[in-house]
Amino acid sequence: MRSVWSTLSAVGVLLCAASVALADAKDGRLDIYFVDVEGGAATLFVTPQGESLLIDSGYPDNGGRDRDRILKVAKDVAGLKQIDNVAVSHWHLDHYGNHAALSTQIKIGKFYDRGIPETLVEDGKFVERVGAYRAAAQNKSIALKAGDKLPLKSGKTPIDLTIVTASREVIPNKGEPNPFADRHKPQEEDKSDNAASLSFLVKFGRFKFLCCGDLTWNIEAKLVTPNNPVGKVDLFQVTHHGLGVSNNPAFVLAIDPVVDVMCNGPKKGGDPNVIKTVKEAKSFQALYQLHRNVDLKADQQTPPEFIANAEPTSECKGVWVKASVAPDGESYTVQIGADGKAREYKTRKE
User: Fold this and answer.
1) CATH of the domain at 177
2) Is this structure's pTM higher than 0.90?
3) For residue 243, how far is the Cα from the chain centroid?
4) How far is CA 166 from the centre of its chain?
5) Domain count, the chain
């Protein structure tokens, strides 16, 4: 595996906030923030060394709504003075829409993506839109491939980030046989950029977190059948906002997440069949939704105390979800907003 990420620069001691433990060199925790961008995606990591990585950045426009929500979490909650690295999982506007706008409000270090295509069939304005991203990255974004390792600076507990899918390619199919491989029922080939999504596997000690952008059904199966090189994970960002064209049971049940976070919107994602699949996992304990799906009944989604935002878009306050991993990687908490209850989960033994 080739190394593509030089050591990130430390951002200094982070600010304190009531009822929110911030990751820094003193407390040794790994923090992961799931920012509400109304059915897009924006996931912010702050390592024990104070290094930061933002994966995706929500929609542009809307009066700067998603940009401002990301900035609020980064600056006011996580206490960052800069974002050391940003990544784009794939080239849909709800995932890279604010990278350029953010760069005008906070210093950004390096830019990572899967490589910038010349055109995008599903977006006739792609060339124009991606121009702002190119400018923000000064045409120096780094293209990632399946198998690339991003060597984050580790402290006492090692941290590791591996790209497990990129541009429809996956890491070698080694590992234990997937007992759920027969649950894969091939779908029509997805020619959109969703299928080309980068997938990020983060390990912190024994703790494992997986984020797959908008990866779709057949590539999910390609990753974990007939063998499962990913293994089982503790925390999973439900793929593609919880849409049914993703979250193949052969994939979800193989990685067997304990806790799931769904970055859905009031009317985007949160498919009841996906929720059913997530809850079918043997080790399942909790599903957190960034939004209540306003089109579903209460018993079709997660309980209200695990939903960050219950209001429609016009009334939404943009409450975030935060996972915080203990310094030794042996446990983690998940909470909703600054005042939410921090529920503790044990890192799996497998």
Assistant:
1) 3.60.15.10
2) yes
3) 15
4) 15
5) 1
Can you count the helices (H) and strands (E) in the chain? 7, 20
Domain of 285? 30-346
In angstroms, the CA 335 to CA 120 distance is 37
20 in a structural domain:
no
Distance CA 229, CA 176 (A): 7
Q: How many residues does the chain have?
A: 350
Residues 6+ apart with CB under 8 A from 302: 262, 275, 286, 287, 288, 289
Which among 55, 37, 49 has a CA at the least distance from the CA of 112? 55
d(CA 71, CA 103): 10
- CA pair distance 19, 161, nearest whole angstrom: 28
Q: Which of 16, 10, 152 is nearest to 79 (CA)?
A: 16
Confidence of residue 67 (pLDDT cuts 50, 70, 90): very high
Q: For 277-315, what is each residue's pLDDT tens digit?
A: 999 999 999 999 999 999 999 999 999 999 999 998 889
Q: What is the DSSP letter of 211?
A: E
**Residue 26: pLDDT band by 50, 70, 90 thresholds?**
low
Q: What is the mean pLDDT of residues 315-326?
A: 96
C-alpha span between 200 and 212 (Å, rounded)? 6
* In a domain? residue 42: yes
Among residues 230, 225, 186, 227, the alpha carbon closest in space to that of 211 is found at 230
Per the CB < 8 A criterion, the answer to whether 293 and 264 are in contact is: yes
- Among the listed residues 23, 8, 32, the one whose alpha carbon sits nearest the alpha carbon of residue 210: 32
CA–centroid distance for 3 within its chain: 21
> For 229-301, where are the E strands, in sequence order?
235-237, 259-262, 286-291
